[in-house]
Design goal:
Chain lengths: 289, 252
């Protein structure tokens, strides 16, 4: 019974196995980045960047159809361009970063949808907006795994730099010559993961698997070292249970994965050990000293 | 420890063309202790940011004799530290070792000893695994001083190190400043506590956007000069013309 419910779908169907591997890879690399996005007060920047990927991917699609390399390359280029352009706009104009990001991403989203509609069908548009986690081919799967590996290696190597720059950017800039470049390298990693997420979950859902588990993890932990693996674990669990629920209910897999992550988030809001409502509103009896 | 002098040559610092520190010249000798005083909005913090290399001058030049930017340690105002960030006191103080160990190096036994000594010196024993968000204002200031001790730089800039802090904490931190002076480090501090400035710092700069006096602290902080400083107009002159003070009458 339990076997039928939770394990059989993955034994019996290859596409389910592929979906699970892809989504778990995405969670393991994306969720820790999400924790840093939250700490840098850039929760909405991830959302904006994920939309920014769309026109580039759409151009790739116009040129080569649903081709992995073309859409990936286009998406990367567009995402990095918007990341650089909006931080430049924030630095050199009167608008703050959030305003310029919002402006850039609205324009990008409109441009992307317009470009796709130029040639594609509504099915293609749905694919681009919501992804196709149940139809990952070999090349896409390897691509997702490669990005997850690169991200984890980069996080391990640059953990101190990233934590330092997130906490005290002025200090980072004074103590190391690399300080100026840390924010850009971080944004590049985020764009990379969003492009990966784009293939599996689509441009509208990709950021969900990055941010929701990260927000949940912050409600359970005090330190940073606990939050990063916990976020990845919540993301992976959401992927697994989302796929199971989608298999049995017939609901679209991508949105259900995000809904699972959303469910975990709402539970954390209520029960979270360090930041949840219960803990904050009904603290335990005070200590002696 | 010896350090070179810091020369300010007709320095103007500010934001969006508006001067916050206007035409300041002078020399901070190696091993000097200088208090920077003046009313709110006088440009004291701006001057420190300029010295720390965080703000480029609008005019003039700041020259460091035999000092690199990496020789300068800087204590920002308490409000500029994000105390909500998840980091414990030990890790926070270890940040001070960054210049020596870099982004990838290990914190070896030598650095550990240095950090332990700094924690003991500021009286934060037993606080090592507390999150900085749980520290009081005074404890946070002690932690910031411990980070400076670990940084171990020849030049130390302090921006309002004693704001909203009780007398016992001030005494402990003043003792650390005295130790830095014995070690011949240069200390430049923005202070609102004038008695403290008179007691601890032999030299003072009285600033009210324009430099009013730079010299012996007793003279700089006399009643007459302080009254003059308090008359400073904080608001911008909307119709301000471009400043021509640098140009000699002949050249104009």
């Amino acid at each position: 019974m339990l076997h039928d419910l939770f394990i059989a779908p993955f034994f019996d169907y290859e596409f389910m196995r592929r979906a699970l591997i892809g989504a778990v890879a995405l969670s393991i690399s994306g969720c820790p980045l999400g924790v840093f996005l939250i700490l840098r007060r850039m929760s909405l920047a991830g959302d904006a960047l994920s939309h920014a990927i769309l026109p580039g991917a759409a151009l790739g699609y116009l040129a080569c159809g649903l081709s992995l390399p073309a859409m990936t390359f286009g998406g990367l280029l567009a995402g990095l361009a918007v990341a650089v352009a909006s931080s430049a706009a924030a630095r050199w104009t009167a608008l703050r970063e959030d305003a310029s990001l919002a402006a850039f991403y609205l324009v990008s989203l409109a441009l992307g949808v317009a470009l796709v509609s130029l040639k594609g069908s509504n099915v293609d548009l749905l694919h681009v907006l919501f992804g196709s986690v149940l139809a990952l081919d070999d090349a896409t799967l390897i691509f997702l795994a490669a990005i997850a590996s690169v991200t984890l290696a980069a996080l391990a190597l640059a953990y101190r730099a990233l934590a330092l720059d997130t906490f005290d950017p002025l200090f980072a800039r004074r103590v190391t010559p690399l300080g100026e470049w840390i924010p850009f390298a971080f944004l590049a990693l985020v764009v990379l993961n969003l492009v990966a997420g784009f293939h599996a979950l689509g441009t509208l859902m990709a950021v969900g698997i990055i941010m929701l588990p990260a927000a949940s993890a912050r409600l359970w932990t005090r330190g940073l070292t606990g939050a990063l693996p916990l976020a990845a674990a919540i993301g992976a669990a959401s992927s697994y249970f989302g796929l199971v629920l989608s298999f049995h209910s017939g609901l679209a897999a991508g949105p259900v994965i995000i809904l699972m992550a959303g469910g975990a988030y709402f539970l954390s809001l209520i029960f979270g050990k360090t930041g949840g409502v219960i803990r904050l509103r009904r603290p335990k009896r005070h200590l002696e000293g | 420890m010896s350090a070179g002098a810091i020369r300010l040559e007709n320095v103007t610092l500010g934001y969006e063309r508006r001067p916050a520190v206007h035409h300041l010249s002078g020399v901070v000798e190696a091993g000097a202790a200088l208090a920077v005083c003046g009313p709110n909005g006088a440009g004291k913090s701006t001057l420190l940011k300029g010295l720390a290399g965080l703000l480029a001058p609008l005019g003039g030049r700041i020259a460091f004799d035999g000092l690199a930017p990496r020789d300068i340690a800087y204590l920002p105002q308490a409000a500029e530290i994000d105390q909500a960030f998840p980091i414990d006191v030990l890790d926070f103080i270890c940040m001070g070792a960054m210049r020596r160990i870099g982004l990838f190096g290990r914190i070896g036994p030598q650095e550990r000893a240095r950090v332990a000594a700094a924690i003991a010196a500021v009286g934060l024993d037993g606080f090592e695994d507390r999150q900085i968000g749980t520290l009081s204002g005074g404890q946070m200031q002690r932690a910031l001083f411990a980070r400076l001790l670990v940084e171990d730089r020849p030049v130390i800039l302090l921006d309002e190190p004693f704001g909203a802090i009780d007398a016992a904490t001030i005494d402990d931190l003043v003792r650390i400043i005295a130790r830095w002076r014995e070690e011949r480090r240069t200390v430049i501090a923005v202070l609102h506590e004038l008695d403290l400035a008179r007691r601890v710092f032999p030299q003072a700069l009285l600033l009210a956007r324009e430099p009013l006096f730079w010299g012996a602290t007793q003279e700089a902080l006399s009643e007459a000069r302080l009254a003059e400083a308090s008359r400073m107009v904080e608001a911008f002159d909307r119709d301000a013309e471009e400043c021509r003070r640098d140009e000699t009458p002949d050249a104009a």
